[in-house]
Amino acid sequence: MQVTRSQISLFLCLLSCVSVIGARYTPDWTSLDSRPLPGWYDEVKFGIFVHWGVFSVPAFGSEWFWWYWKGAQNPDYVQFMIKNYPPGFSYADFAPNFHAQFFDPDAWADIFEASGAKYVVLTSKHHEGFTNWGSPTSWNWNSVDDGPHRDLVGDLGNAIRKKGLHYGLYHSLYEWFNPLYLSDKQSGFKTQEYVARKAMPELYDLVSRYKPDLIWSDGDWEAPDTYWNSTEFLAWLYNDSPVKDIVVVNDRWGNGCYCKHGGYYNCADKFNPQKLLNHKWEKCQSVDKISWGYRRNMKLSELMDLPELVQDLVYIVALGGNYLLSTGPTADGVIAPVFEERLRGIGAWLQINGEAIYGTSFWRVQTENATVPVWYTAKKSTVYAIFTTNPMQNTFQLSAPNTTDSTVVTLLGSPKPLKWAPLQSSGLMVVLPELPFSPAYAWTLKMEGVA
After folding, report:
1. CA atoms within 13 A on the CB side of 450
2. In what helix (H) or strand (E) does residue 285 lie, and over which residues does it extend?
3. DSSP assignment, residue 70?
4. Among 112, 138, 273, 333, which has the highest number of CB atoms less than 10 A from its own CB?
């Protein structure tokens, strides 16, 4: 029987597919870091971070309340407790007031969808150790046995996925005052009782039960990844877990892993690299500049306004990153109106300018100062120039684009092509229309047919 060239090609293709499907990752960073990042993550660009837990009850200072009160013994936190709570009041006594009686996951999902975010990451457990689901290893320190008496992780996940958004879970590896962890720490991390009995069982349970699209690991910095058994967990996650083909993870898996190992890099909180990286990355940022969680003593001047948030989003995407923006709900389960206003404002801007954000990549030139700062993104043969200040003039020059006879320039939100002329060396001069009002003070020029 004669074998045709097309049959050989088909056989080689099938062989390649089998090889890829059959590939298994070994529990070492060389193997794990070779895993391609699932494509959905780079496409979505913008997500919402939700910091919610027992710390939302005192709602003072930051989500690190317990540590600043009992660990660092910060005078502001100590005095807050003396003035407002009786002697002998413990942190555990806050939990019954984390009742979340107004928590409506569908209402939250509506707000997140309206923000234009494409993924949501909820704190399943912060450093305080309280789990927002009924963890069987939580010693009843969880949202099912205490406080809300409901599965917060599951309830929000169901609502988020009904909207077609990706759902991720934040999980802190360590716990400030867990006696098992403190015992391991005392041994110089030569013992692993806490890892074997608490940290890893929780992670396996979260993945098996809720099938998150993303795991945002944290609380890793005091011990090496060998203590946490991180590579063993990730090998299971990539090879055998129910989310092995879609799950995305960050880089916080042990002391020294930041910006070095993992699916994508967080590096540091509120990371601003100022340049292109050779690896996918994400900036996490909070609307409240002081705290990731809700605090009752926040001031309006301490919040990022809408133009700041949109500028931050644009800058991050132009440099190839994702933007994960945190809001802190109240202990009652309410997203404060000022946070909702910010999120809906971002969504209104993305309704018009989203094609310059979603599914784009960084361009050969990321930014230029064309009288006002301009940030570039690209999608195939289309280039977007986003400017976050009104140039206050009729013409606008961009030096980076190389025009052709087929170049078409439009202002997003306005279908009529704009008049333009090439500059002598490179670039173009665009005749701007009267710019429509933008609460974010940001507009986008779409340039088709430029190099």
Report:
1. 30
2. strand 281-286
3. I
4. 112
User: The domain 37-356: what is its CATH number?
Assistant: 3.20.20.80
β partners of residue 142: 131
Burial (0-12, 13-18, 19+ Cβ within 10 Å), 84: exposed
Q: How far, in Å, are 27, 208, 232, 245, 301 from residue 236 at the CA level? A: 8, 11, 6, 12, 46
Q: Is 329 left (phi over 0), alpha (psi -120 to 50) or beta?
A: beta
Q: What is the CATH number of domain 367-448?
A: 2.60.40.1180
With H, G, I as helix, E, B as strand and everything else as coil, classify residue 308: helix
Range of weakest confidence among 10-14, 217-221, 328-332, 398-402: 10-14
> By the 8 A CB rule, do 54 and 130 touch?
yes
Distance between CA atoms of 347 and 118, rounded to whole angstroms? 11
The rounded distance, in Å, linking the Cα atoms of 72 and 65 is: 10
Per-residue pLDDT tens digits for 70-103: 999 999 999 999 999 999 999 999 999 999 999 9
What DSSP designation does 435 have?
Answer: P
Residue 451 and residue 401 in contact, taking contact as beta carbons nearer than 8 Å: yes
Sign of CA dihedral 185, 189, 193, 194: positive
> Length of the chain in residues, anyone?
451
Total-model pTM? 0.93
Domain ranges of the chain: 37-356, 367-448
Distance CA 102, CA 183 (A): 39
